[in-house]
Specification:
The complex is a heterodimer of chains A (116) and B (170). With 116 residues, chain A is mainly beta. Chain A has one domain. Chain A contains 2 helices and 9 strands, in the order ββαβββββββα. In chain A, strand 6 and strand 7 form a beta hairpin. Chain A is globular and about 35 Å long. With 170 residues, chain B is mainly α. The chains are: A mainly beta (116), B mainly alpha (170). At the A-B interface, strand 4 and helix 2 of A face helix 2, helix 3 and helix 4 of B.
Chain lengths: 116, 170
């Protein structure tokens, strides 16, 4: 599970609980100018994840950490696909981050509103 | 370097117009877009940034492809009856859905909708030589008729009432 908030001109993603162990990250801070958008996307969990390095992937249980797919680096922290949100980035170490949040609709609105 | 885009962006946007117009923004999932548009999920995010990003591009395409020809036709409308016929027979699906579904919660969508309806009003005002506020009332009536789904019956009754308006204004 991740907590998302806006801090000034940055988007901050805090990884909660034990997931930060599997994900090898406790938080990510991304300048809003490098955020292209956010989308609730439960279906993404069924897609190929690519190669993980480092991280944990137990299909149907947890996907956490850094994955490489089609030349892109993607950060994952998802247990419950129904609550998955995709945040697309530009000019960042990660091309996109896929995180589980408590309220996907509210998180998408928070991010999209911060971009306008 | 990501995998090169293996899709026709133009075609995908046009298909997205149909999908959003048919199912509304909230009714279309990324899975729907991936399946129906034949686009790789990662390519979709890479190209449009988000579902909202694709929606905005699709809405602007709808305005360019469907609303601009309408305003061109309206600019040459000879009378109020022709205006009613043109508006009530146009493909305004995504514009109307955007007005009720997304404009109240998305100011960028609201701005696009307002601007598009403004050009329709202006085209009518110019064509009939009537004040902008009266043209806006005519647009509102025509859209109402379109939404009620009875363009012929209601539209014909209104047209009879509008005949004197034309002769008065001209």
């Amino acid at each position: 599970m991740a907590l998302v908030h806006i801090d000034g001109d940055d988007l901050v993603v805090v990884i909660e609980g034990l997931n930060k162990l599997w994900a090898f990250k406790s938080s990510l801070t991304i300048p809003l100018v490098n955020v292209r958008g956010a989308t609730a996307d439960p279906g993404i969990a069924a897609d190929p994840k690519g190669i993980r390095a480092p991280g944990a992937h137990v299909p149907g249980v947890i996907t956490a950490g850094t994955f490489h797919l089609d030349g892109e680096k993607i950060f994952w922290d998802v247990r419950d696909p129904a609550k998955a949100v995709v945040i697309e980035l530009a000019d960042e170490q990660y091309s996109r981050i896929v995180i589980q949040v408590d309220d996907p609709r509210a998180t998408v609105a928070l991010v999209e509103n911060a971009l306008r | 370097m990501g995998r090169p885009r293996a899709f026709d962006e133009d075609e995908v946007v046009r298909a997205a117009v149909g999908l959003f117009a048919g199912h509304a923004y909230d009714g279309v999932s990324i899975d729907d877009l991936v399946t129906r548009l034949g686009v790789h999920r990662n390519s979709l995010y890479k190209t449009f940034g988000s579902k909202r990003g694709l929606y905005l591009v699709a809405l602007r395409r709808h305005l360019a492809d469907d609303i601009r020809p309408l305003t061109d036709a309206l600019a040459a409308a000879p009378d109020a009856a022709a205006v009613l016929r043109l508006v009530t027979s146009a493909d305004l699906g995504l514009l109307l859905l955007a007005a009720v579904e997304r404009a109240p919660v998305d100011e960028e969508v609201a701005a696009e909708v307002t601007a598009a309806l403004g050009t329709v009003d202006q085209a009518i005002a110019d064509a009939l030589g009537i004040p902008a506020v009266l043209a806006a009332a005519l647009t509102a009536s025509a859209l109402g008729i379109l939404l009620r789904g009875n363009p012929d019956g209601v539209g014909a009754a209104l047209t009879r009432r509008l005949d004197p308006l034309d002769s008065k204004e001209n």
